[in-house]
Design goal:
It is elongated and about 75 Å long. By secondary structure, it is α+β, with helices and mostly antiparallel strands. A five-stranded antiparallel sheet has the order 2-1-5-4-3, sandwiched between helices. It has two domains: 119 residues, 2-Layer Sandwich (Beta-Lactamase); 93 residues, Response regulator (Rossmann fold, 3-Layer(aba) Sandwich).
Length: 226
C-alpha cells in the first residue's frame, strides 16, 4: 500500500479525520470532519489546525497548548494517548471531541512526516461524566452531615406533583447513598414499601433512575444542606 492509498483510507473513515504537516497546517480534511464540525474541505485546508478548531471554556488557552504539544509529539513519532478536548464548530457551538493521533512517516526525513488526527463526537459522554460527578459530589457532601434536614415544602415543586413527607425522607436517604434495604431498616418499613415510594418519586420528578432523582433534588433545592 502506498502513502497515497493509506491517506485515502484514513479520509474514507467514519470518524472525522484531518492530517497536518510539520507546521500543524491542515493538508487533508475528510467529509466526516465537515459533518461533525461544519467546516468544508476548502475552509480547512491550509489553516493552522488549532486556529481553525478554536478551543472553548475557561481553560481554552491550556487546552490549545496541550493540543499543540500532542500534535507536535505525533509529528515526532511519539505515541499520543487519546483524549478529549472542547472546540467550537463553524457556527460557534461548543463540541467535545475525542482525539486520537497517528504518525504518518512519508519518508526517511522526519521533517516531511504528517500527523493524522482522528476524532469523534464525545459531547454526550462528557455531559454524562459531568452529571455523575455533580451527583457524587452532592452525595459526598450529604454523607458528611449527621442529619439531612428536609424542608416541609419544596422550594420548587416537582413537575409531576408535590412529594409526600415520606418521599422527601426517602429521597434524602437515597442522596446519602443508602440502599433499599438500608432505607427500609432506617424507616422501619418493608423493602417493597420503599420501592413503591421510590417509583412514586421517579414518576413525580419525571426521571428514570435513582441517580437522576438525586441530581434533580440537588439542583432544584428539594434537599437542603447541599
Amino acid at each position: 500500500m502506498t502513502i497515497d492509498d493509506l491517506i485515502q483510507s484514513f479520509l474514507n473513515a467514519a470518524d472525522g479525520v484531518f492530517i497536518v504537516d510539520s507546521e500543524q497546517r491542515i493538508v487533508y480534511w475528510n467529509a466526516a470532519a465537515q459533518q461533525l464540525l461544519g467546516y468544508s474541505h476548502a475552509d480547512a485546508v491550509g489553516r493552522d489546525c488549532w486556529d481553525l478548531l478554536e478551543c472553548c471554556g475557561s481553560d481554552s488557552a491550556v487546552q490549545t497548548a496541550h493540543n499543540r504539544r500532542a500534535v507536535a509529539a505525533a509529528l515526532a513519532g511519539i505515541p499520543v494517548s487519546s483524549y478529549d478536548t472542547c472546540v467550537r464548530t463553524q457556527t460557534g457551538k461548543p463540541r467535545w471531541i475525542n482525539l486520537s493521533m497517528i504518525t504518518l512517516m512519508t519518508s526517511q526525513n522526519p521533517e516531511t512526516w504528517l500527523a493524522v488526527v482522528l476524532f469523534r463526537d464525545a459531547t454526550q459522554n462528557k455531559l454524562n461524566e459531568q452529571f455523575v460527578a455533580r451527583v457524587l459530589e452532592a452525595v459526598e457532601r450529604l454523607r458528611e452531615r449527621d442529619v439531612v434536614t428536609l424542608p416541609p415544602v419544596a422550594p420548587l415543586p416537582p413537575p409531576g406533583g408535590r412529594l409526600t413527607r415520606r418521599e422527601y425522607e426517602i429521597l434524602g436517604l437515597l442522596a446519602r447513598g443508602q440502599s433499599t434495604r438500608a432505607i427500609a431498616a432506617t424507616l422501619s418499613v418493608s423493602p417493597p414499601t420503599v420501592r413503591n415510594h421510590i417509583q412514586s418519586i421517579l414518576t413525580k420528578l419525571h426521571v428514570h433512575s435513582r441517580l437522576e432523582a438525586v441530581a434533580y433534588a440537588v439542583e432544584h433545592g428539594l434537599i437542603s444542606g447541599v
